[in-house]
Amino acid sequence: MKKSPEKQIEHKTIRRITSIGVLTAIALTIFVLESQIPPLVAIPGIKLGLANIVTLFALVFLSPTDAFIILILRVTMGSVFSGQIMTLVYSLTGGLLCLLTEMILLKYLPLKNLWAVSIIGAIIHNTAQVAVAALITQTPGIFWYMPYLIIAAIITGAFIGLAVQFTISKAGDTIKKIIK
Asked: Which domain of life is it from (predicted)?
């Protein structure tokens, strides 16, 4: 028996909201757990950024709007839950510019280059955060961290992009059936 158009729209809306909620919860959990891990290196600002796996996943499997919603919710609630309210402006600026960059790149690059899209997004993310920090602290010398942050962005961006790319190659069709 075929569903009425209204029921189909309602069903799609419920699936979309549920997908956003589940992915936000996953991203938020990763974000809060990662904030509890001591820094891996003595250079401020370097962290894995594993919650970005969820944002990139949402960008590929859902929509830019849904990825945006997940990012905003994750960063806002993550800053509150981790007790790091001051990081809100840094994370939000970096995350939004990263997302915008990845959205643009995904229009022109095939999914097999998702690792490269993620690396460029990570570099933009770190650059935006340093720019915000320089503005807030009135310390332009902070840009001396950029070479280290770019190296970190290449490593973490590649990992995040490859993780999502691997997920797509192994379970992409199944995930599309579940989400759509």
From this structure: Bacteria
Token output for 132 = 């915000």
CATH number 1.10.1760.20 is the correct assignment for the domain at 13-26+49-179: yes
Burial label for 138, CB within 10 Å (0-12, 13-18, 19+), is exposed
Kindly tell me if the per-residue pLDDT of 1 is higher than 70: no
φ, ψ for residue 97, nearest 5 deg: -70, -35
pLDDT tens per residue, range 126-163: 999 999 999 999 998 888 889 999 999 999 999 999 99
pTM: 0.87
Output the CA angle 164-31-137, nearest 5 degrees: 115
